[in-house]
Amino acid sequence: MNENNKIAVCVSVSESGKVSSVLSSLGYECVGFKPDSMSLIRTVITDIPCAVIADTERIAREELAKAFTVLEGECRPLCIVLGESEDSPLADLGKIYCLSALPEPYTLKCLISGSMTGVGVRENISPEPMPETLLQPLMEDGITKIIRKIGIPANIKGYRYIRTAIMLVINDPSLLESVTKELYPEIARLHDATPARVERAIRHAITVAWDRAEGDEEYLSKRLHCRIDFSGARPTNSELIALISDSLMLEARGKKAEHFILSV
C-alpha cells in the first residue's frame, strides 16, 4: 500500500477496533505507536503517514503538544485529535483538527483528503472540492445534537444512517431528488449495508422518536426555526432529512429557515 495511505493511530482500546475498521473501509492502512510524544515523532518520520488520529484518552494532551511542536512545517501530517473541543489549545498549534468523537466515514475521508478548510494538509494529498456549507468545523457535531434532541436513540442503526444522510445532502442537495436510487445506496456503501436496510432503519428511528414523543421541542424550535409536532403524524424519511439539512445549510450562511410546523 502506498505510504500516503498510512495513518498513524493512537486511540483508546474501546475505539481502536472502530477506528481500524473505518479506516480500512476507506482504503487506509493503520500504523500504531505507543502513547508518548517520542513514539509519535518516530512513527511520523519513519512511516510518513498522511494523517495522525490521536485520542487524548490514550495519549495525554501534553504529550501531543510536545510532538506537534517538534513536527512543524511540511513534516507534520494532518492531525485529528479526538476528545477535544474546537477551542482546544492544541488547535492553536496549526494543522490540527479537534473533534469530540470520531466522525462518520464520509466526514473523516473529507478531513484526511484536505477537502475541509481551516486545516493545513500535505502537498501530496489531492484535495476534493466541497461546498462552503460543509466547511463548518463541527457540522457533524451539530447534526448529532439535533438527532438526539429529536429523541432518536443512539443505539439503533437509523441514528447513524440519518446523520450520514444529512451530511451527504448538505454536500449535494440534489440527492434529495433521488433518495431511493442515489442517497440510500451511498449510505449503504459507507456503512456496509443495503439500501433497503438503510430505508427501513431510518423509518424505524423516526417511528421510535415519534412514539416516545420525548424530543426537546424548545431546542428544536430555536435551532431548526420550526416547531416539530410529536403529537402529529411522523414525517417521512426524506422530509426529516430535508428539514434538518436545509436548516443547517441556511444557518451556515447566516440565514434562518422559514418558520413552519412539521406536522404531516
What would you note in describing this structure?
With 264 residues, the protein is of the alpha/beta class. The protein has 2 domains: 128 residues, Response regulator (Rossmann fold); 124 residues, Orthogonal Bundle (Arc Repressor Mutant, subunit A), CATH 1.10.10. It has 10 helices and 7 strands. A 5-stranded parallel beta sheet has the order 2-1-3-4-5, with helices on both faces. Strand 6, helix 10 and strand 7 form a beta-alpha-beta unit. Helix 6 packs across helix 10 and helix 7 packs across helix 8. It is elongated. The C terminus is likely disordered.
Mean pLDDT figure: 78
Poorly predicted runs are 115-138, 255-264
CATH class category name of the largest domain = Alpha Beta
Number of strands: 7
Instruction: Give the oligomer, counting copies of the same chain as homo and different chains as hetero.
Output: single chain
Find the CATH superfamily of the largest domain: Response regulator
The proportion of residues forming helix, as a percent range, comes to: 40-55%
Number of helices: 10
Quick structural gist:
By secondary structure, the protein is an alpha/beta fold.
